[in-house]
Amino acid sequence: MMANPNQTMARSFVQVAAAPGEVAQPLRVVQMEGLAILKIIKHCKEFSPALVTGQLLGLDVGSVLEVTNCFPFPIREEDEELEADGANYQLEMMRCLREVNVDNNTVGWYQSTLLGSFQTVELVETFLNYQENIRRCVCIIYDPSRSNQGVLALKALKLSNSFMDLYRTNNFTGEKLREKNLSWVDIFEEIPIKVSNSVLISAFMSELEADTPVTQCDYDRLQLSTNPFLERNVEFLIECMDDLAVEQQKFQFYYRNLSRQQTQQQTWLQQRRIDNNARKAAGEEPLPEEDPSNPIFKPIPEPSRLDSFLITNQISNYCNQINGVVGQSLSRSYLMKALHDN
């Protein structure tokens, strides 16, 4: 279940106190409490491979977005009554947190993903719904399947300002994209994540480190079998390539129709000019050379390029994951070979 930002947004004091005309500082870093990260990981792993979401709470201070707490959303089916219950659940959770003096200011949401497949239109629409009530927010993406390879697959994303301005106009034609100088790499912006812990937690972790020098994550890095992960990535990559081919066929069909229409318009104009020359010779008034009522002069709508941009983003993400896993796998294989020879 996705968040209902129109009913659950609570703005921080810094956001409320800021003047409407004040220029906001660009977001430089997302500072997350270790407890909030552990809650996100626990929630996403418990329900994997099902996708889950939750609310991020914290403060927006200058160029830093502090995430100090979070809570999960219950998994429900898509239904209006259930969505209303979900909104009431969020309001009740935030009220309870406020009563125990915990930060209850919404700064975004988190969601799990499967092999990095999160770049969808739904994600873009959720961002815009949130930013109608919050000046800036982030989405924390966590991938349990990628984390099983020994990497903490946690990233903070936001929409670029240029893309949001264009999305509000809902005009993703080639001419508009060239005018805004916007490409598929300009949709999302990844914000660096900084983990923050209290002094007591840091001291406790330093004591634990001496007793357990090797963690499970260290063992995960030594796993040589990456075939299942690579196979799923390649399968998803092939699906995205098929989707991209479908989008390209839409544009090819559009350009064929446009070329056919232009040819029909030229033929019609030539015939109209011949008729006007004959009318002038007969002393009659010439007919107009444009006829909006003629179907051949009706503009053909250009397909939106948003879907192709998102698919291209997804393909790039899969390729980067495959490259990263293959590189690490080769390094581990050479390391194990050297150890075996010795």
From TrEMBL:
<comment type="similarity">
    <text>Belongs to the eIF-3 subunit H family.</text>
</comment>
<dbReference type="GO" id="GO:0005852">
    <property type="term" value="C:eukaryotic translation initiation factor 3 complex"/>
</dbReference>
<keyword id="KW-0648">Protein biosynthesis</keyword>
<keyword id="KW-0963">Cytoplasm</keyword>
<dbReference type="GO" id="GO:0008237">
    <property type="term" value="F:metallopeptidase activity"/>
</dbReference>
<dbReference type="GO" id="GO:0003743">
    <property type="term" value="F:translation initiation factor activity"/>
</dbReference>
<dbReference type="InterPro" id="IPR000555">
    <property type="entry name" value="JAMM/MPN+_dom"/>
</dbReference>
<dbReference type="GO" id="GO:0033290">
    <property type="term" value="C:eukaryotic 48S preinitiation complex"/>
</dbReference>
<dbReference type="Pfam" id="PF01398">
    <property type="entry name" value="JAB"/>
</dbReference>
<dbReference type="InterPro" id="IPR027524">
    <property type="entry name" value="eIF3h"/>
</dbReference>
<dbReference type="GO" id="GO:0001732">
    <property type="term" value="P:formation of cytoplasmic translation initiation complex"/>
</dbReference>
<comment type="subunit">
    <text>Component of the eukaryotic translation initiation factor 3 (eIF-3) complex.</text>
</comment>
<dbReference type="InterPro" id="IPR050242">
    <property type="entry name" value="JAMM_MPN+_peptidase_M67A"/>
</dbReference>
<dbReference type="GO" id="GO:0016282">
    <property type="term" value="C:eukaryotic 43S preinitiation complex"/>
</dbReference>
<dbReference type="InterPro" id="IPR045810">
    <property type="entry name" value="eIF3h_C"/>
</dbReference>
<dbReference type="Pfam" id="PF19445">
    <property type="entry name" value="eIF3h_C"/>
</dbReference>
<protein>
    <recommendedName>
        <fullName>Eukaryotic translation initiation factor 3 subunit H</fullName>
    </recommendedName>
</protein>
<keyword id="KW-0396">Initiation factor</keyword>
<comment type="function">
    <text>Component of the eukaryotic translation initiation factor 3 (eIF-3) complex, which is involved in protein synthesis of a specialized repertoire of mRNAs and, together with other initiation factors, stimulates binding of mRNA and methionyl-tRNAi to the 40S ribosome. The eIF-3 complex specifically targets and initiates translation of a subset of mRNAs involved in cell proliferation.</text>
</comment>
<dbReference type="InterPro" id="IPR037518">
    <property type="entry name" value="MPN"/>
</dbReference>
<feature type="domain" description="MPN">
    <location>
        <begin position="30"/>
        <end position="163"/>
    </location>
</feature>
